[in-house]
Amino acid sequence: MEAEELEPRQSEALQEFISNLDILNALADEKRQRLIILLGSRYQRELTVSELVDRMSLSQPAVSHHLKVLKDVGLIDFKQTGLKRFYFLTPDKTLNRLEHLIKMIREGEKLKED
């Protein structure tokens, strides 16, 4: 179906999907998924880059890159204590965006069924 043939709600859902590609791409990477799991662990709520490097078996630059991607989409943040940064999950805003996307897709699908 061409974009011009879409119903207005379907077109809105498509635009919402496009606006969330950054989050979806960030979540698609296995290494970033592992970082999220580590940071979401009941016992490891805040971890430094060094601690993440030890647990991930990746180089420090690679871990830092993945942390930046996750921070840019709002899934994590850090607090600075002296020279160390402690990373932690901050998924609420991002999850709200994804919930809104899912709602719009469902509404678009309902229109197709009618």
TrEMBL record:
InterPro entries recorded: ArsR-like_HTH (IPR011991), HTH_ArsR_DNA-bd_dom (IPR001845), HTH_MetalResp_TranReg (IPR051081), WH-like_DNA-bd_sf (IPR036388), WH_DNA-bd_sf (IPR036390)
Entry GO MF terms: DNA binding; DNA-binding transcription factor activity
Keywords assigned: DNA-binding, Transcription, Transcription regulation
Keyword Transcription carried by entry: yes
Pfam families, per the entry: HTH_5
Top-rank taxon, per record: Bacteria
Signal peptide: none
Positions of the HTH arsR-type domain: 12-109
PANTHER family named among the record's database cross-references: TRANSCRIPTIONAL REGULATOR, ARSR FAMILY, TRANSCRIPTIONAL REPRESSOR SDPR
Family annotation (NCBIfam families): HTH_metalloreg
Name of protein: HTH arsR-type domain-containing protein
Source species of the chain: Dellaglioa algida DSM 15638
